[in-house]
Amino acid sequence: MTPVSYLETGVIYCDDNLHRLSEFPAECIDLIYLDPPFFSNRHYEVIWGDEAEVRSFEDRWEGGVHVYVSWMRERMIEMHRILKPTGTVYLHCDWHASHYLKVMMDDIFGAKAFLNELIWHYETASGAPKKWLHRNHDTIFRYAKQKADLVTWNHPRSPWPESTLKKWQTDEDGRVYRVQNKYDKRYYIDPAGKLDDDVWNITLSSRTKERLGYPTQKPELLLEKIITASSNAGDIVLDPFAGCGTALVAAQRLKRQWVGIDISPTAVGLMRERMERVGALGIKLVGMPVTEEELHTLRPFEFQNWIIQRLHGTHSPRKSGDMGIDGYSFMEHLPIQVKQSEHVGRNVVDNFETAVERDGRQKGYIVAFSFTRNAHEEVARVKESKGVEIELVRVADLLAEKAELVTPESGRLFEEAPLPGPRPADSRPSAEELIGNDDSE
Q1: What is the pLDDT averaged over residues 83-109?
Q2: Which of 28, 71, 117, 230 can pair with 7 through a Cys bridge, CB separation 3.0 to 4.6 Å?
Q3: What are phi and psi of 16, to 5 degrees?
């Protein structure tokens, strides 16, 4: 890849971030926040997003922690290169590999560039582990590009506690103060709030509209605090592991420029929708699959998500035991089955017809790369004998947005269709139900 002479912002890249970072010009980024896959040897398979999309998130690292740290080191060297002299990087991690990552960061940035070990305390403990204390915090390492006195810094603050305000007094101008001594020497508190230390208590409530159902999602308030502290309006914020896009959302709201990278087409598609909802205009996606060959190479869950997104549909709320229905179309809420296959035959049509009837419908879609003659014959037989209409949709026609895929009842099924509204919170399993309790480690 050839490095570019300038950095375009408002872009979400679907790519391996190592490859993409190598293209960025030197010293072009003001702030980097990264929340990479943790070295926890767990596999997340969750209902993710307002559209109940399925995303599988793996952080299994064969070869042990040294392989994981080596993988991170390659990327961090590029991040150091593209960070401005006044820039800051925040590395979000947990106890599994935080000590190894700290040594790696010291090696790349220099021990003197280390600024803070922030503790994000994210929830109130419940239950009682048998042999250890509750693990209720993550670690965020903050490093300067060069020297601490060069970095952009706006000390974060929090509102004064009510208990403090009740003990103090208010003067005729509305300023809060306390009396220092008997000579009535007054000490006024800063109305901007209390200066934060390195422990941040911020919770992402399970009931908030902000939550997408993604188990490692971070609160917008956490990212807003980081971005406000280490950048100014107009600065460029980069998240190279953008995931569900919380850093980009916070940057957009705080009037920063932004760039996101994620290797998952599912993540990139949903990030675009989330960014559009907060008013981002002219979002550019780079690296999304656009050919049949590229779609063939996607992992099965990514391919299925791509199809459902392309139809602006909703994913089946049942990951297992879905009875052959992977999702539902947007306008008519008709069953969809996705096959990452060529030459899909009669048996698939026959089985799907049973699933459609079981679902109480008279129509459904099968999406695949190609279909056999027997499949088309079975479609005709089912329609004539049972009145059930199965439409066979080729991936090539989705890519080309062929006119014959438009029906009078549904209008356009694809890009021009409006985004579906959020699904009710109780229509899909919670992240906790899907991934279980981490205290079993």
Answers
A1: 96
A2: 28
A3: -70, 125
Q: Which residues are CB-contacts of 234 (< 8 A; sequence separation ≥ 6)?
A: 255, 256, 257
Q: The whole model's pTM is what?
A: 0.79
* Token pair belonging to 124: 């109130």
Q: Which domains, from first to last, does the chain contain?
A: 11-153+199-288 (3.40.50.150), 157-195 (no CATH), 292-433 (3.40.91)
How many other CB atoms sit within 10 Å of the CB of residue 198? 12
CA distance 125 to 441: 16
Comparing CA positions, the residue from 329, 385, 388, 392 lying closest to residue 362 is 388
Residues 218-264 pLDDT 10s: 999 999 999 999 999 999 999 999 998 999 999 999 999 999 999 88
Whether the CB-CB separation of 325 and 333 falls below 8 Å is answered with: no
Contact 262, 271 (CB under 8 A): yes
Q: Which of 317, 316, 358, 360 is nearest to 337 (CA)?
A: 316
Long-range CB contacts for residues 151-155, cutoff 8 Å, separation at least 24: 151/86, 151/87, 151/88, 151/115, 151/230, 152/30, 152/31, 152/86, 152/87, 152/88, 152/230, 152/231, 152/232, 152/235, 153/229, 153/230, 154/228, 154/229, 154/230, 154/232, 155/195, 155/196, 155/229
What digits encode the pLDDT tens for the residues 129-168? 778 888 889 999 999 998 788 899 999 999 888 877 777 7
